[in-house]
């Protein structure tokens, strides 16, 4: 081997609630219009009720001086938002609400929010969240960037973001290299494939079976069978 459309605010009116100085604005907003189908209305109301109960539970535990980070995982709350909320904006607002209450998100929490934004093609907002993450003293990891790499559809943008990741001190994982090489290979771009291979070597990563297979598959995809055999 060689190395190489939502309802308006006027439709629903819910007053903010507070607990000993902690304020949660509209924690249980109804988000379905009056003419919505019953099953959708019930599902939405249950989701909003669950969010409200969780927030109230967190406030009670906090007032009782219970170590909140032990008894209640903010990641769990974020994943509930990801799976059950009415969309990105609801989840982001809840994320900000928790930060305003003084709860410090972890890298897993930030990655969950970044993933949600990237999945909804809100890359600029996701990049802002990445900067917010650093400003809060939480260092992004390779997974933080992989959500961008998975969704971005332009090789140049991916390579630029990869360089930004490395320059910020984040070390790419082998999974990152393999994922990018396979993505470029599927698109039929060999130059970015070899760029990733070279960067991998420059950063001191030894190719493994997965990276060799990704390189070989990219070469075969372009019909370069003889060159591919050199890496077999």
UniProtKB/TrEMBL annotation:
Keyword Transmembrane annotated? yes
Instruction: One Pfam family, please name it.
Output: PPR_2
Which sequence ranges are marked TM in the entry? 50-72
Q: Which residue ranges contain the repeat PPR?
A: 106-140, 173-207
Give the highest taxon in the source lineage.
Eukaryota
Keywords, A to Z, come to: Membrane, Repeat, Transmembrane, Transmembrane helix
PANTHER family named among the record's database cross-references: OS03G0856100 PROTEIN, PENTACOTRIPEPTIDE-REPEAT REGION OF PRORP DOMAIN-CONTAINING PROTEIN
Record family assignment = Belongs to the PPR family. P subfamily.
Q: Which NCBIfam families match?
A: PPR
Q: What is this protein called?
A: Pentatricopeptide repeat-containing protein
Q: Which organism is it from?
A: Senna tora
């Amino acid at each position: 081997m060689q190395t190489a459309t939502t309802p308006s605010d006027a439709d629903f009116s819910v007053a903010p609630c507070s607990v000993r100085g902690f304020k949660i604005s509209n924690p249980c907003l109804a988000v379905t219009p009056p003419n919505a189908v019953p099953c959708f209305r019930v599902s939405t109301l249950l989701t909003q009720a669950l969010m409200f109960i969780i927030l109230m539970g967190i406030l009670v535990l906090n007032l009782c001086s219970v170590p909140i980070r032990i008894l209640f995982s903010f990641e769990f709350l974020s994943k509930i938002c990801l799976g059950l909320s009415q969309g990105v904006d609801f989840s982001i607002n809840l994320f900000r609400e928790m930060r305003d209450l003084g709860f410090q998100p972890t890298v897993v929490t930030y990655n969950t929010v970044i993933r949600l934004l990237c999945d909804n093609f809100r890359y600029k907002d996701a990049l802002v969240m990445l900067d917010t993450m650093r400003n809060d003293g939480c260092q992004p990891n390779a997974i933080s960037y992989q959500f961008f790499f998975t969704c971005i559809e332009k090789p140049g943008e991916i390579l630029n973001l990869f360089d930004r990741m490395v320059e910020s001190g984040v070390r790419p994982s082998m999974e990152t290299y393999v994922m990018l090489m396979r993505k470029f290979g599927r698109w039929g771009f060999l130059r970015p494939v070899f760029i990733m291979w070279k960067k991998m070597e420059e950063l001191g990563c030894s190719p493994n079976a997965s990276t060799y297979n990704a390189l070989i598959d990219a070469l075969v995809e372009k019909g370069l069978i003889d060159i591919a055999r050199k890496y077999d």
